[in-house]
Write a structure and sequence with these properties.
2 domains, 347 residues, 16% strand, globular, Isopropylmalate Dehydrogenase, 12 helices, homodimer, alpha/beta, eleven-stranded mixed sheet, 11 strands
Chain lengths: 347, 347
């Protein structure tokens, strides 16, 4: 065993289990509290063959363990003494913080000791370190970040959510391929409907980027391309995957988060006047709750890397671990690699 | 008088009033019902020196008048027999439907018989015909559509909301100038805070367009440039004007409309279970209600042209007329022309 992994009470090796996930224990605003709680929740609720490695400050993690009667055997700890801070330039983390939870967790994945990595730490640092350790899949120009948006039907995957600005049509086509595989393998969509985010429905609408991307997507046999969608259609749930440039995706995602929070705030004011319990808004909040949807996958790299919100609750962490498990079990990375290389060959 | 304008009961000339507005009576989904009601509401509630010319199918308009006990003298009718339909290419309307409400209303403005034009008809047709009749202001490369977004503080103006895709930095700088003048003159902002929509706060962040636009905006003395904002900040009300490419603006605007509708729908379901009147959501809905904010101005043309939503209620029409009145009274077009030409000279 290359790296010593210690269980709650003793040093143990990683057992030969079906799905092994490294979880950055230092990512959330309340680290490692949310991470420990999320991991314990996941082990209690998800398949019994999942094993989780908490990577982070061992003293803090073990102090957190004290709150629990029993720590599952399938939860291990890997001590990572370095701490990534907001002022660390993302690309420098791998060099300057080699013993951080992000770098050590991804190194575990790189060496094959785990099958996936989940982190609520700095998005930039996780992305940059994932690219460095897991590498791009052959043929992928630019890995993309996918994000799950609630809709009136079912959730949909939007990508790129911010990894790439100034995209070319070729990049958007790859996002479509990567998103389609992800929606199939982890979201249970049989033949994912892939749409191009645009400012009009007709082919040829939009800016230079979307007009040309439309033409390319039409010719992609491996994708169930359903055409353009406008901003208003996303929420109607007319597609499973929405493809856009990372600039647009990032603006949209951040806007959505804030609009939901804004409207919920307006509501809570009203509800507050009535006192608790008069109106059950649980369902409304649940639909808008990012915690339900389990993190943003980095797609197009040679592994499973899931990025969570810094404000992630234990439930959000648990759900991100569940998504990571599904991605591993379905062989998503292999399918993505096959799709991309088949498309390369057909060109 | 070049064009015969008829009052409710007799033919009259346009009096020498302070603000004369042509209102397209055929634009909304319920035309001319919403337009007639909105105009009557405006005349009852707004300044006494406003005069409105309803432009549209005279028979339908007069049939609508029958519902009212009294039609104000300051409400006139101009018969426009042609009807613009969705399948009309916007740029062809001026040639192929010269006697439509859009063309005739804008011709009234062009000839100086009215000071402003308000329409809930086809956005593309209103824009194209406005450009043809009112012309671009000297120095303006691309007129932009502004749209008002509710925020947790006060409303803010976002532009461009869809008139221009594939913008250059120079265009975004002009949007900033036009938006700043509009916010000052019609929204009562003393020194409007102008922000650039981006995917990060620091200077130099973003794509090629925003990075370069940032540098140009910093050097614009006539604008109170407050830097980059992200999607999440819009709703926080940290600025009065948000500048972006028309692609991003259009996606965002349509998304916002649909998200609000979606969340309100979720809520109404919950409220419905309790029965009416248990929870006063009026305030929530009011904040999110586009009707409150009075239409989207086309900025950078030689006149006041306000575009309303096709679903506009009488209140929305009334508010658009109020905005048009403020734009006329404040001499917004003159100020915009001065600002643009001063910036041209300083370069």
């Amino acid at each position: 065993m290359a790296i010593g992994l210690r269980g709650p009470d003793c040093e143990v090796g990683i057992a030969d289990v079906a799905v092994r996930i490294a979880l950055d224990a230092m990512g959330t605003d309340r680290a490692p509290q949310s991470e420990v709680a999320g991991a314990i929740k996941a082990l209690a609720e998800l398949d019994a063959d999942i094993e989780i490695v908490l990577v982070g400050d061992e003293t803090l993690i073990r102090a957190e363990f004290e709150k629990y009667d029993r720590i599952p055997q399938r939860l291990r700890v890997l001590h990572a003494p370095d701490r990534v801070v907001a002022s660390d330039p993302p690309a420098s983390v791998i060099r300057r913080k080699p013993k951080s939870s992000i770098v050590m967790g991804l190194r575990l994945h790189q060496s094959g000791e785990v099958d996936a990595f989940v982190s609520a730490g700095s998005t930039g640092a996780v992305m940059a370190t994932s690219l460095f350790t897991l590498r791009r899949l052959p043929g992928v120009d630019r890995p993309a970040v996918g994000t799950i948006l609630p809709t009136s039907q079912d959730v949909c995957l939007l990508l790129d959510a911010g990894a790439n600005v100034d995209c070319k049509p070729r990049h958007l086509v790859q996002f479509a391929q990567l998103g389609s595989v992800y929606a199939h393998d982890t979201m249970g969509r049989e033949s994912p409907r892939v749409a191009l985010l645009n400012i009009g429905m007709e082919p040829g609408k939009g800016d230079e980027l979307t007009a040309e991307t439309y033409r390319l997507l039409e010719r992609q046999d491996s994708i169930n391309f359903v055409g353009n969608v406008e901003g208003r259609h996303i929420i109607e749930g007319v597609c499973d995957v929405v493809v856009c440039d990372g600039f647009v995706g990032n603006v949209l995602l951040k806007f959505y988060e804030s609009v939901s929070a804004f409207i919920i705030g307006l509501l809570k004011e009203q509800v507050g006047r009535l006192g608790d319990g008069v109106l059950d808004l649980e369902n409304v909040f649940r639909v808008l709750d990012y915690a339900e949807y389990g993190g943003a996958p980095l797609l197009g790299v040679g592994g499973v890397s899931i990025i969570c919100h810094g404000e992630s609750t234990p439930k959000a962490i648990r759900n991100a671990l569940a998504v990571a498990g599904r991605a591993v079990r379905s062989d998503m990375v292999k399918h993505a690699a096959e799709d991309i290389s088949a498309a390369e060959e057909s060109q």
